[in-house]
Amino acid sequence: MPRKLIAGNWKMNCLRTDGVALARDLGVRYSGETEPAFDMLVCPPATIVDAVGAAISGSGVLLGGQDCHRATKGAFTGDIAAPMLADLGCTHVIVGHSERRQYHGEIDLMVSEKAKAAHEAGLTAVICIGETEAERDAGQALAVCSRQIAGSVPEGSTADNTVIAYEPVWAIGTGRTPTTADVAEVHAHIRAELSRVMSDSDDVRILYGGSVKASNAGELMAVANVDGALVGGASLVADDFWAIAKACS
Ligand code: PGA
After folding, report:
1. Which of 92, 97, 119, 187 does the annotation list as catalytic?
2. Which residue, 102, 119, 207, 226, has fewest beta-carbon neighbours within 10 Å?
3. Rg for the chain (alpha carbons), in Å?
4. Topology annotation, domain 4-246
């Protein structure tokens, strides 16, 4: 079983002072663990990746970006290339988050190209997938995940350079979560689908994301094929994020 990964997606939150304080707090807690049962990743907004990286330096907490461009450089105003994130000490980058798919028109092919760019820069791509509420109601949750895996996971993906985050769109920021039986069903399906596109699919970490909190983390993290969590809102409060991580041990 892969070691659990607890990832914080800070989204468009935190100015430098708050972000550095949060990162320092997590760094102190993580480095104080004798044998942490989990890896911890924080993905701050691009403006403070550098400062957060300095704040967690030496603590063992990992650093990631929230998005990257498919190209390594060029005339793409406002975008961030994967090698730029690597240059700041990132080891991971989230790609294809549903908020990017929804508000920036990202389709599977773009997500796949971004993940490929991440791999080429030596980063682990955290590829997000998940159905909308209408798709779940129509009984299409598994089919949507199959389609997104086929379209968003590039050739050359391995358990080392890829993490999948299953985030049902209707569970993000809503306080609603699927039942553990539903999570088990989707994660098992994702694992089976991954075996079509990579040979070491058993070792790929499949995170659950969407309204993960300290109060539900224990039961969610205990579900088969759940190898960690991608946490939004609750990752902004050190006590809450830490309690989620500790629910893995
Ligand atoms: P949430 O967000 O934990 O606030 O629901 C999760 C995410 O979007 O990654």
Report:
1. 97
2. 102
3. 17
4. TIM Barrel (3.20.20)
